[in-house]
Design goal:
The structure holds two protein chains of two kinds. Chain A is mainly alpha-helical. Chain A has ten helices and no strands. Chain A has one domain: MetI-like fold, CATH 1.10.3720. In chain A, helix 6 crosses helix 8. Chain B contains nine helices and ten strands. The longest helix of chain B is centred in the C-terminal third of the chain and has 16 residues. A six-stranded mixed beta sheet of chain B has the order 6-7-8-3-9-10, sandwiched between helices. Chain B is globular, with a radius of gyration of 18 Å. The chains are: A mainly alpha, B alpha/beta. At the A-B interface, helix 7 and helix 8 of A face helix 3 of B.
């Protein structure tokens, strides 16, 4: 019975909303501008091609972020006194790259560095834009790793140390495996956010889905291509968000069981 | 006789708080010394100073006449010779029982996997845990986890074992099993320092008992004398509270 009421209420509310929107006086114009099927079909191949760029950049950048952030987090987690200067460097790094908008970094790196024509370094806006994203996101991910490392019980360190493990071995064998497992749900949310933020590279001329859709819009004055791009993003992010929810739930249950 | 562990005038501060105040204690070879006292009396800290899990501020602790901060121990010599077992087991939850106990032999002492695992299975078998080599800690009862933790501490053949309230987190019906293991180790001649709230066990198993209060060893004697006729007022008061709680 509750399920039936739930279904009914969804049908009624969403039905009313749909009727309300489509019966509006301006709806035909809105439809033509944003949901024009012919324009969508015409724009689809190039937007899809652009989206493939998004996916490639996303996966490459993601791997770089996860690795670089781990390096940052490990340096920050090592407690030996001679690491103090490195720890400080990492703290400053994180402060800077978390405090500056990603878009600004993308512009700065994507336009600025190629303009220098540095010998021996790549000159593409895509490369340097991607570097900017790695530097920025790694600051967040390093903090997530750190929260995971801090969440591992102090007794684990004591046990590892009393077995004779060095500080590095303690991290490597005892702390990090647990820390990484702790932060998987939080990381999943970053993965989803990153997937969308790759579109920022369109501002420096990378021909991703958004850029391709814009190009179509510029020639036809029809915005349906952007809706196509939006659809592609949703297709990718919604399942990932669901997976993130699932992992979070499973993690919660695991913790509750352990607390028993 | 040269003491196995010689704690000489040891002082330790945590920040401004004085937790050990000029403590001296000798533990002879093959001797079992129990440390008793209320929470916060400094007994666990004293235990952890012996294997340098806590670094004391003043005084000297010697193992076989060599100071525990002597470079002669190298990075891991002290840890190899002084095993410790904790109240909350502190097994690595992401590793199987066998991986837990062979981690240090393999990674720290460079044994091959076969060599470490052969010995690991022997030690587990001794504690009736050979059927659980592939299990993970969360699949075991508290008593079983603690037996694995003791096995892990024994893997490097230490000559001193430090036990930090190892039965405090166990269900009462599981305490007996773990204490039986400790009795077995005593019979084998293991030198042990034991922090415990199990007064019955301390009375039966200890060669000597030291009562700590406010970071000081107030009284130290054979169990018969310390439990039978405590000299200090504070020891008497502590034991009366224990008796009132039905734990002696």
């Amino acid at each position: 019975m509750p399920a039936l009421i739930g279904t009914m209420s969804i049908v009624v509310v969403f039905g009313t909303l749909a009727w309300f929107v489509t019966s509006a006086e301006q709806w035909p114009r809105i439809k033509l501008q944003f949901f024009n099927l012919d324009a969508m079909i015409a724009a689809f191949p190039r937007v899809l091609q652009g989206f493939w760029v998004n996916i490639q950049v996303w996966l490459t950048v993601l791997v770089c972020i996860l690795v670089w952030a781990l390096v940052l987090a490990v340096v920050r987690a090592l407690r030996a006194p001679w690491f103090a200067s490195f720890r400080l460097m990492v703290m400053i790094y994180i402060d800077i790259f978390r405090g500056v908008p990603v878009l600004l970094l993308v512009l700065l790196f994507g336009f600025g560095i190629p303009a220098l024509n540095l010998p021996g370094l790549p000159n593409s806006g895509l490369f340097w834009g991607a570097v900017a994203m790695v530097l920025s996101y790694a600051a967040y991910v390093a903090e997530i790793y750190r929260s995971g490392i801090d969440a591992v019980h102090e007794g684990q360190r004591a046990a590892a140390k009393s077995l004779g493990l060095s500080e590095w071995q303690t991290l490597r064998y005892a702390i990090l495996p647990q820390a990484l497992r702790n932060v998987v749900p939080a990381l999943m949310n970053i993965v989803v956010a990153l997937q969308k933020d790759v579109a920022l590279l369109s501002v420096i001329g990378v021909r991703d889905a958004v850029r391709e859709a814009q190009i179509y819009t510029a020639t036809t004055f029809n915005y349906s291509s952007l809706i196509v791009a939006a659809g592609l993003f949703l297709l990718a992010t919604v399942p990932m968000a669901r997976l993130a929810d699932y992992l979070t739930r499973r993690d919660r249950q695991r913790r509750l069981q352990m607390a028993d | 006789m040269v003491p196995k562990i010689d704690i000489d005038n040891v002082t330790k501060y945590f920040g401004d708080k004085l937790v050990l105040d000029r403590v001296s204690l000798k533990v002879n070879p093959h001797e079992v010394v129990c440390l008793i006292g209320a929470s916060g009396s400094g007994k666990s800290t004293l235990l952890r100073c012996v294997n340098r899990l806590v670094v004391h501020d003043y005084g000297t602790i010697r193992l076989d006449s060599v100071s525990v901060d002597d470079p002669a121990f190298g990075k891991t010599g002290l840890q190899r010779r002084a095993g410790i077992v904790f109240q909350s087991y502190n097994l690595f939850p992401h590793m199987s029982v066998l991986d837990n106990i062979t981690l240090a032999p393999r990674r720290v002492y460079g044994q091959s996997r076969t060599e470490a695992e052969d010995r690991g299975r022997d030690v587990l078998a001794r504690f009736g845990m050979d059927g659980f080599a592939a299990s993970y800690p969360e699949q075991l009862s508290g008593g079983q986890q603690q037996r694995v933790a003791i096995a892990r501490a024994l893997m490097t053949r230490p000559d001193v074992l430090l036990l930090d309230e190892i039965t405090a987190a166990l269900d009462p019906e599981l305490v007996g099993d773990v204490l039986a293991i400790i009795r077995g180790l005593k019979d084998d001649g293991m030198t042990m320092m034991i922090v415990t709230h199990e007064m019955g066990f301390a009375r039966e198993c200890a060669d000597r008992v030291a009562f700590l209060d406010g970071g000081v060893i107030l009284e130290e004697d054979t169990p018969d004398r310390l439990f039978g006729a405590p000299q200090q007022v504070r020891t008497q008061a502590f034991l009366q509270r224990i008796i009132a709680a039905g734990r002696l």
